[in-house]
């Protein structure tokens, strides 16, 4: 195997195994930053040795063993001044035994509890939302600083500084490496699912840049959501989150045209929707319902997505049920954005005039002052009512507010299609 191919294999193994390795080291060292540093040392060793010696039969176990040896060396050197060598060895070996009594079992345990603990640490409330997202992508997603910066259209130094500060904050706050106690779980779990969905949503509808979608971010978020659901099977809202991401991911192939241009939901070729992901999503939604307590915000959104997934054609969509689900969502998590989405649904269920009445009430909302989807929705509803001149102005305003190139092109195209001529469509 050539050196280039070996490096590709190493990169693939690292992307899959890095979270598990860092999680195991963090449990030993109680320091996420140091754990990542020593895990990176193991990666460097693989890059140096494997092109010459060949890829080991179990590359994951090799990386885990080298990384844990690095951690053992660190612990030994850190305590040399406190103990005699014999006492120190006994103490450290005890710590290592507690941390991973069976190396092979730890490696074979697919995304074990260490990964779950690491997820909760990266999403600790002591960090800002931006820091949680960046750190989770770095530590759990295995993305480079360059990849994260590109995904969120930030500079590399900005992202690097954000990650460094997050690690320092966790260290200074002495955040324990553990899944929260039951009485803390609800608050902490909310932070975790929020971060996972923020990552997913940025991939599903990129807020800026030249691409409409960033599938790699959706994949990372879905992977993290599946890990969480597997380890917390009694948490209905976690299953709701997974259901939502599975069903929305099923549309990926249909959401862009031949040139990468956006294709809106009602215009998509539904034969291109991934039926496996839809079945997985519907199964997760059923698990959310069986968990009891009713749907939370993610479960309700997943139920809405399920209505679209079950509709063979746009005309088969059960808009009355979707409207009822949005009513429940608005009561559970009232916000101007939910109300705007509800306006769209009301227009489909009861006519564009009803939807426009709701959208017009949101014009004075400070949170939506620079939100491009408000004029976009109003433009669509005005066009359906034949008020093409007003619709054109709204689409142009929406285009001026969006930071996504693909979306801007779509909105400007809709503005050009609008005309004051009677009978013309927008």
From TrEMBL:
Q: Enumerate the spans annotated as DUF6596 domain.
A: 188-289
Q: Which residues form a coiled coil?
A: none
Tell me where in this chain the RNA polymerase sigma factor 70 region 4 type domain is found. 120-170
Which keywords are on file for this protein?
Answer: DNA-binding, Sigma factor, Transcription, Transcription regulation
Q: Name one GO molecular function term.
A: DNA binding
> Is the keyword Transmembrane assigned to this protein?
no
Q: Reply yes or no: does the keyword Lyase apply.
A: no
Q: Where is the RNA polymerase sigma-70 region domain?
A: 20-79
Q: Give the domain of life.
A: Bacteria
Q: Which GO terms describe its biological process?
A: DNA-templated transcription initiation
Q: Which Pfam families match?
A: DUF6596, Sigma70_r2, Sigma70_r4_2
| Database matches in InterPro entries | DUF6596, RNA_pol_sigma-70_dom, RNA_pol_sigma70_ECF_CS, RNA_pol_sigma70_r2, RNA_pol_sigma70_r4_t2, RNA_pol_sigma_r2, RNA_pol_sigma_r3/r4-like, WH-like_DNA-bd_sf
Assigned protein family: Belongs to the sigma-70 factor family. ECF subfamily.
Report the protein name in the record: RNA polymerase sigma factor
The organism encoding this protein is Massilia cavernae
């Amino acid at each position: 195997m050539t050196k280039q191919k070996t490096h590709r294999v190493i990169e693939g193994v690292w992307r899959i195994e890095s979270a598990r390795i860092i999680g195991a080291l963090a449990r030993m060292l109680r320091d996420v930053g140091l754990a990542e540093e020593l895990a990176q040392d193991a990666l460097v060793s693989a890059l140096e040795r494997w092109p010459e010696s060949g890829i080991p039969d179990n590359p994951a176990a090799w990386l885990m063993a080298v990384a844990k040896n690095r951690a053992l060396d660190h612990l030994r050197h850190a305590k040399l001044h406190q103990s005699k060598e014999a006492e120190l060895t006994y103490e450290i070996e005890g710590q290592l035994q507690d941390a991973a009594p069976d190396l092979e079992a730890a490696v074979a345990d697919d995304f074990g509890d260490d990964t779950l603990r690491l997820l909760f640490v990266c999403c600790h409330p002591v960090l800002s939302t931006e820091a949680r997202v960046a750190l989770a992508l770095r530590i759990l997603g295995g993305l480079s600083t360059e990849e994260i910066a590109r995904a969120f259209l930030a500079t590399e130094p900005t992202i690097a500084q954000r990650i460094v500060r997050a690690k320092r904050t966790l260290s200074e706050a002495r955040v324990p490496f553990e899944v929260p106690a039951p009485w803390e779980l609800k608050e902490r779990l909310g932070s975790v699912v929020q971060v996972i969905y923020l990552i997913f949503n940025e991939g599903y509808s990129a807020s800026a840049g030249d691409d409409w979608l960033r599938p790699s971010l959706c994949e990372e978020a879905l992977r993290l959501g599946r890990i969480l659901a597997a380890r917390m099977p009694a948490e209905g809202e976690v299953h709701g989150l997974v259901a939502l991401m599975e069903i929305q991911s099923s549309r990926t192939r249909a959401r862009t045209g031949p040139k990468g241009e956006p294709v809106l939901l009602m215009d998509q070729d539904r034969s291109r929707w991934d039926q496996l992901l839809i079945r997985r999503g519907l199964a997760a939604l059923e698990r959310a319902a069986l968990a009891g307590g009713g749907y939370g915000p993610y479960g309700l959104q997943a139920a809405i997505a399920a209505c679209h997934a079950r509709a063979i054609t746009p005309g088969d969509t059960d808009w009355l049920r979707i409207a009822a689900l949005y009513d429940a969502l608005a009561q559970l998590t009232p916000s101007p954005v939910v109300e705007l989405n509800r306006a769209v649904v009301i227009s489909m269920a009861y006519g564009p005039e009803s939807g426009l009445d709701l959208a017009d009430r949101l014009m004075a909302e400070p949170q939506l002052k620079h939100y491009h989807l408000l004029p976009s929705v109003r433009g669509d509803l005005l066009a359906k009512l034949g008020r093409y001149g007003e619709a054109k102005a709204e689409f142009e305003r929406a285009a001026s507010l969006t930071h996504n190139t693909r979306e801007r092109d779509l909105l400007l195209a809709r503005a050009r299609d609008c005309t004051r001529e009677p009978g013309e469509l927008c």
